Amino acid sequence: MHATQTLPENYRELCTIDLEKNKKQYAIVNSLSMVVAAVALLVIWLLAPEGARPFQGVPGLLVLLAGMFVYILLHEAVHGVCFWYFSRQKPHFGWKSAFAYAASDCYYRKGPYLVIALAPVVLWGVVLAVLAALLPAECYWTVQLIQLINLSGAAGDLYVTWLFLRMPEDIWVIDAGVNMRVYVPAEE
Ligand SMILES: [Zn+2]
Fold this sequence. Notes:
This protein is of the alpha+beta class. It contains five helices and seven strands; from the N terminus they run ββααβββαααββ. The protein is elongated and about 65 Å long.
C-alpha cells in the first residue's frame, strides 16, 4: 500500500518538518537554494552558445517572468498528479507567504513520498535541458533561467528528500504543503 486516508493504529509522531516556521530548516533551505542558484548560473554561463544574450530588453524580460510563473504552476501540478497517482485522492494547491504548494490529506509511504518530492525537479529539469539544447540561441537564457528556478526552487524538495532518506522504511508521511508530519510504528 502506497497511501492511506487514515493513519494505521499503533503509529506515533516521529517529527514535524516545517520549512516556513522552523528557523533552522528555513535557513537550510534558503542557503541551499542560493548555493544551487549560484552553481547553476555559473554552469549556464559556461555552456552558453555563441549569440545567446542574457538580457533581451523588456519583451524578453516579460517572456521570462511569464515563463517562471507558468513553471511554478507546472511544478506544483506534477506534485499534485503524483499525490493523486498514489492515493487516488484529490490534492490541494495554495500559496503560503512566498511559496506555492501542493498538499494532500493522505498518508504516504517513504518510497512514494520520495517520488512525489522529486518528480517535478527531475521531469522539468529534463524537459528544460532538452529545450535549451534544441531551441535557437536567442531562447537559451530564457530557458536556462527557468531551469535555474527549477533547480534552486526545488531546495525544499531536495532537503526533504535528504531527511527522508535517513528515516526508517516503515514511516507514514502527511504533507500539508510547507510542513510535513512523520509517523513511525509505536513500540509496545
Ligand atoms: Zn516542489
